[in-house]
């Protein structure tokens, strides 16, 4: 599969299940490799990843529901809970602070660069999951769930939750994407 084909196959999968087409260890190995290979400005290595599996997967999504006090749809939360696992993406703010102190002229940029690197990591893992035949979606229930996640996974205070990515076997393909006039977003000047 080409790189572009991989990107095109990466979609938001809400209909996921616990039937992975590959082994759990293959998924975990891929996440480790992608995390190591994804660039970060100044080679900060600011991203942190926690993978919730089994009982922790269930507890995570029950905690998300509870954190909102019933203000979100339980059925929607259950679509994420029904997945094999979830990848939680964090930024280690102590790393950012250290680089801000070392390189004061760039201090304001390090949080921006860490967010950019984390976004690349999310995209890379999401695309790699899809290459493996695994479906995923990217969720943002933070900061409402930050305290619950920190308690559940014993997360250090200096880690900031950025996103949640439930993943699993694909129960159904999403609807086809509507094509756009990409010329409205990509402008070429000579």
Please name the defining characteristics of this protein.
single chain; alpha+beta; five-stranded antiparallel sheet; 190 residues; 7 helices
Task: Give your account of this protein's structure.
- The protein has 190 residues and is α+β, with helices and mostly antiparallel strands.
- Helices cover 44% and strands 16% of the residues.
- The protein contains 7 helices and 5 strands.
- The protein has helices at residues 3-9, 24-37, 55-67, 74-81, 93-102, 109-131, 146-153; strands spanning 16-17, 47-53, 85-92, 135-136, 159-170.
- Strands 1, 2, 3, 4 and 5 form a 5-stranded antiparallel beta sheet that branches.
- Helix 2 (24-37) packs antiparallel against helix 6 (109-131), helix 3 packs antiparallel against helix 4 and helix 3 packs antiparallel against helix 7.
- The longest helix is centred in the middle third of the chain and has 23 residues, at 109-131.
- The chain is globular, with a radius of gyration of 18 Å.
- The model has no long low-confidence stretch (mean pLDDT 97).
Q: How many helical elements? A: 7
Question: Termini distance?
Answer: 32 Å
Task: Summarize model confidence as the mean pLDDT.
Answer: 97
Q: Order of SSEs, N→C?
A: HEHEHHEHHEHE
> Low-confidence stretches at least 5 residues in length (pLDDT < 50)?
none
The gyration radius over C-alpha positions equals 18 Å
Q: Class by helix and strand content? A: alpha+beta
Report the sheet with the most strands, covering strand number, pairing sense and barrel closure: 5 strands, antiparallel
In helices, the fraction of residues equals 40-55%
Shape: globular
- How many DSSP-defined strands? 5
Strand content: 15-25%
């Amino acid at each position: 599969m080409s790189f572009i084909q991989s990107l095109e196959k990466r979609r938001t999968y809400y209909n996921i299940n616990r039937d992975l087409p590959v082994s759990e260890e293959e998924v975990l190995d891929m996440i480790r490799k992608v995390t190591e290979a994804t660039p970060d400005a100044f080679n900060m290595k600011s991203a942190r990843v926690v993978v919730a599996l089994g009982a922790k997967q269930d507890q995570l999504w029950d905690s998300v529901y509870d954190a909102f006090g019933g203000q979100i749809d339980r059925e929607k939360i259950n679509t994420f809970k029904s997945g094999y696992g979830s990848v939680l993406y964090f930024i280690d703010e102590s790393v950012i602070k250290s680089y801000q102190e070392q390189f004061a002229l760039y201090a304001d940029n390090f949080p921006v660069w860490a967010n950019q690197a984390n976004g690349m990591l999310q995209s890379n893992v999401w695309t790699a999951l899809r290459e493996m035949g695994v479906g995923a979606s990217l969720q943002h229930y933070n900061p409402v769930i930050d305290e619950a996640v920190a308690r559940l996974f014993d997360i250090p205070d200096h880690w900031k939750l950025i996103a949640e990515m439930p993943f699993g076997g694909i129960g159904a393909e999403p609807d086809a994407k509507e094509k756009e006039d990409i010329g409205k977003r990509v402008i070429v000047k000579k």
